[in-house]
Design a protein that fits this description.
By secondary structure, this protein is an alpha+beta fold. The mean pLDDT is 90. Strands 1, 2, 3, 4, 5, 6, 7 and 8 form an eight-stranded mixed beta sheet that branches. 32% of the residues lie in helices and 35% in strands.
């Protein structure tokens, strides 16, 4: 794609929402939510993570596993996840497009005294109130190291 075409595409994407059109979440708040998610994991606070989600949100972690529906089920999922002592580390920039934030990160934990890492890509979908309505985690056996 040529330079002028890229500029036209960027202008179309970044043009303010027309009257009557659907509003979009704030990209800066979306990115801030990703950083708050990582920080809440570091603090071991499932409550802080759950607070990022809409009341009727869903979590599918990993893709293909049973979906956790609603903030309380999501909180319970994170309580269990945090009991492993897992720590998250962003492994690249947060990408924001439309109502999605996508981010690569690693999950680092110790199991039976052995350091382990899982490489993950998460997607967060946001509503107009800048709450996460859907989280999907992309990882599988080939992304697990040290197991």
């Amino acid at each position: 794609m040529s330079g002028p075409m890229l500029i036209a595409l960027a202008a179309a994407i970044l043009t303010p929402v027309q009257a009557g059109a659907k509003t979009m979440p704030d990209p800066a708040k979306m990115e801030a939510a990703v950083h708050a998610y990582v920080a809440a994991f570091e603090a071991g606070s499932a409550d802080q993570v759950a607070a990022l989600y809409a009341a009727d949100a869903t979590v599918e972690d990993p893709i293909g596993s049973p979906i956790h529906n609603g903030r309380e089920a999501i909180r319970a999922f994170y309580v269990q996840s945090m009991q492993t002592g897992a720590k998250l580390k962003l492994e690249g920039p947060v990408r924001v497009a439309g109502d999605y934030a996508v981010f690569p990160f690693s999950v680092n934990l110790n199991h039976d005294g052995k350091a382990m890492r899982i490489d993950v890509i998460d997607t967060f979908r946001f509503n107009d109130a800048n709450e996460v309505t859907e989280m999907r985690a992309y990882w599988g056996p080939t992304n697990m190291h040290g197991f």
